[in-house]
Design brief:
The structure is a homodimer of 487-residue chains.
Chain A lengths: L3 H4 L10 H14 L12 H8 L3 H13 L3 E4 L3 E4 L14 H6 L24 E3 L11 H13 L16 H15 L8 E4 L1 H13 L5 E5 L4 H9 L3 E5 L1 E2 L2 E2 L1 H10 L4 E4 L13 H14 L2 E5 L24 E6 L11 E4 L2 H15 L4 H12 L2 H27 L4 E2 L8 E6 L5 H10 L2 E3 L14 E5 L5 H15 L1
Parallel strand pairs in A: 3-15, 5-6, 5-9, 9-10, 10-11
Antiparallel strand pairs in A: 1-2, 4-12, 7-8, 11-12, 13-14, 14-16
Helix pairs in contact in A: 2-4, 3-4, 6-13, 7-13, 8-9, 14-16
Chain lengths: 487, 487
């Protein structure tokens, strides 16, 4: 007989009833090959004694085992493992550690073998991030109030059911109004898809627009996750220089004489990472080229809401009368990263295709959250939030840049950003950013190591320094620590 | 001079200030080609008179226009549209209606041209759905309480920042415990990815496992969105019959003699749509074949939590000692469709690849919501919810099936489902389900028309009738209406 006393152990504190625990132990023994088809199980009395449970518990476990098709009862003989079960060769249970060393049980794409996850920022350590909002300002109480109020109404409960892959109709309507009022984009709900943040917009656009080996133009420096998304779809990335006035559109025009482009990806406000803004002249010329060469412009405008000086240039989407622009934005980047709400704007048939693809990816968004945001847009709460946080971020930017200017001479070069939540800091060539990042962490400051923004054509020794998520005391403390490790 | 009086109209009730409205109107005129480079703008006095605003408003608008790079001021002459702007040919503003009729502004995949969106169920009309939970039972107040409590704590606010593409560490831990307690699946957090519902698990698995033209085995009848996801990835679907004891594994074995399979997609509990359950014998044989032929089993177990009779068969994943199973489940399908939380279980390196892909798709989930669910799993709230709703659904199933049996003789055939939230109803061949659905809607009952479950090899005249989302009075009313249109 098997050493059941050690093989079957029950936990009296578990929420799982004892007979189910015993039954599951037998299933493990049978499915693992320790018990073979036609093997006899011990009598209920014997097993009860061995493992220290009541006999009725074992009887119930055996009934369960039989009802689940693992064993059978033979009159006057006992309980047997079902003879028709396939024979399993006995082997030890694997665990993840073992499993890594042996051959994989099945094969999958090796595209992601060397993928490095993005920085996880969900900690309380003092952090200079890449330029994200201060979640302490997020109007989360107001949002929750709306969420609860909606989900308590009998009509509101409907938003817990399956809805549309395009997102809440109310939020699409509210976003249409918000885009018109803040940036002159004139679209109706049929041109709008609610996404999970900007990234989903980039992914959907890439998958719809790009077949393997087709060309997409991107900046020499660019947002890494956008590059990776286009590469993932097999597209060929054509790098276009980005200078002080944004992407070099004359260069792009020359490229177009030789190669067909399916799309151009631009971040006209606060290009990522270097924060430059594309001039109006270049914007218009880019639109003209798109019209003539029939390519799509993917306009990633993640950061429009934060401008500190004049009213910003209007987005390409607002002056595009030929529908060449797929416009991507997000609430995520302006309110809180973990609240996954964004939007994609485009010609109605393109948005329909995007919604059909999105249905395969994750069906739809969280409609109640979308409805809550719709209320917040409509009752002015979002506008109040933007106004309030803009004021705070402006004073944080000013303090941050003032300290950067006075305390980091010869170490860091930068231009005062007229918008956005980060400064592009060029470090002295002798500064090893990877070492700097490690040294800072020892002093209690988390700061990026610069690898995220490098690519095959861009290797500047720079970092995006996010000032918005730190209050004044934290800015002084963080830059103090940075200075201490930079000397 | 242009007819500015009709071209520029301001709205005094708008939240946008008047000078910005005037400025934006000029941008529209310039970018649309109505005003050309080097054109002179009217003097501020003239324009102020024409459009009925204060002269200073026009002056401010012109300043804004200049600062945004659209115009320039020439001393003692006036304001001119910037001469270096590209020339735009004047045309009318397009709208979506026009746009559909002309050539698309750019091209994209036509894969989704004929896509039909899923049924939108977010309405209050009496509905027989496909088998979804009753959102009136969703513990939304408890969930919101946890959400708020987390987001108010200073540590909890960290969950509003960017986190991990794999999902909340606490929820992954809680799901590990829940899977072990409810279904004997023994995995650790590194084997778990938190997804947006089951559908995202299917999408991620498809994209990682399937290259174009590779084979995946699926049921002759199958969940349409799974089929569509595999087809979208260019895979070849090998149809395997599904009878009363689930997928015919002997048939699968014969297929394997001739063709290499990358994966098999199964719904062993309550196969969708026909609700049959795969026998234990077949489960073990499928695992054996997977081991020998090194294919992945995608086990979609969306519905495990609802069983009314014996304890259910354990999932393949719980008796898979060779890690051939990618196990997909969701909280969405058991708590509320619009709360997008699911999970995917697999070998740790596979889960790492899935997380890297997921980062390109939408970065991550809503961490605060994930944390709130983790608390609900850990404090027993989820278990209480499952126990309570199971009891309610069992009595609804019994009533629903009793009425179906007594009132729909010769019209509908069905088997009492031992779990899940729907009955598979085979209708009399003479019944035209499309007409039935339309007639029912006229009587105030929304019911599917059967097309969703048909595919190239499955054309049964059947419907999934969801009983769970209707209370007793609604069941009687809904089936009463159905009977009235079925005679």
């Amino acid at each position: 007989m098997l050493p059941y006393k050690s093989l079957i152990q029950v936990d009296r504190n578990s929420s799982v009833s004892l007979h189910i625990q015993v039954c599951n132990s037998f299933i493990t023994l049978i499915s693992g090959g320790t018990l073979q088809p036609s093997d006899m199980l011990p009598s209920s009395r014997v097993l009860a004694d061995l493992i220290g449970v009541h006999r009725n518990t074992v009887k119930l476990a055996y009934e369960e085992l039989i009802s689940q098709g693992w064993a059978d009862s033979v009159a006057r003989k006992g309980i047997f493992v079902l003879s028709k079960l396939p024979i399993v060769t006995k082997r030890r249970l694997t665990n993840a550690g073992e499993q890594l060393q042996k051959k994989e049980p099945f094969t999958w794409t090796n595209k992601f073998k060397d993928a490095v996850p993005s920085r996880n920022l969900q900690s309380s350590i003092l952090t200079i991030d890449d330029g994200f909002p201060d979640v302490r300002l997020t109007p989360i109480d107001e949002l929750m109030r709306e969420y609860r109020s909606i989900s308590r109404k009998s009509y509101g409960k409907n938003f817990l059911k399956y809805g549309s892959a395009k997102g809440s109709a109310h939020l699409r309507q509210a976003i249409a109004g918000y885009l018109y009022n803040t940036r002159g984009i004139s679209v109706s709900a049929e041109n709008i898809l609610i996404t999970k943040g900007s990234q989903m917009g980039i992914y959907l656009a890439a998958q719809l627009l790009l077949a393997p080996l087709e060309n997409i133009a991107v900046g020499v420096s660019n947002y890494l996750l956008a590059d990776n998304t286009f590469k993932h779809h097999g597209a060929n990335l054509v790098r276009i220089p980005v200078y002080d006035h944004g992407m070099d559109i004359d260069y792009l025009e020359k490229v177009l004489r030789k190669r067909k482009l399916k799309a151009v990806y631009v971040i006209p406000h606060h290009h990522c990472p270097t924060t430059v803004t594309m001039s109006m002249e270049r914007r218009l010329k880019l639109l003209k080229l798109a019209r003539e060469h029939r390519f799509a412009i993917i306009e990633d405008d993640y950061d429009f809401d934060f401008h500190y000086e004049n009213k910003p240039y209007l987005p390409l989407a607002s002056i595009d009368h030929h529908q060449n622009v797929v416009y991507i934005g997000s609430v995520t980047k302006t309110v809180a990263p973990a609240l996954r709400i964004g939007f994609m704007i485009g010609p109605a048939p393109f948005i329909n295709a995007a919604a059909a693809l999105r249905e395969l990816i994750d069906k739809q968004g969280d409609t109640v959250l979308e409805e809550a945001f719709a209320v917040m847009f409509n009752n002015g709460e979002m506008e109040r939030y933007f106004r309030k946080s803009l004021k705070i971020y402006k004073s944080r930017r000013d303090l941050f840049c003032q300290v950067l200017k006075s305390e980091f001479k010869n170490k860091i070069e930068f231009t005062l950003p007229e918008g956005g939540l980060a400064v592009w800091a060029s470090f002295d060539k002798k500064t090893d950013l990877v070492k700097l990042s490690a040294a800072a962490l020892k002093k209690g400051l988390s700061i990026d190591d610069g690898t995220f923004y490098r690519n095959e054509s861009f290797s500047a020794n720079g970092l995006r320094l996010g000032f918005a998520s730190l209050d004044e005391a934290e800015i002084l403390e963080a830059l103090g620590k940075l200075k201490a490790v930079l000397k």
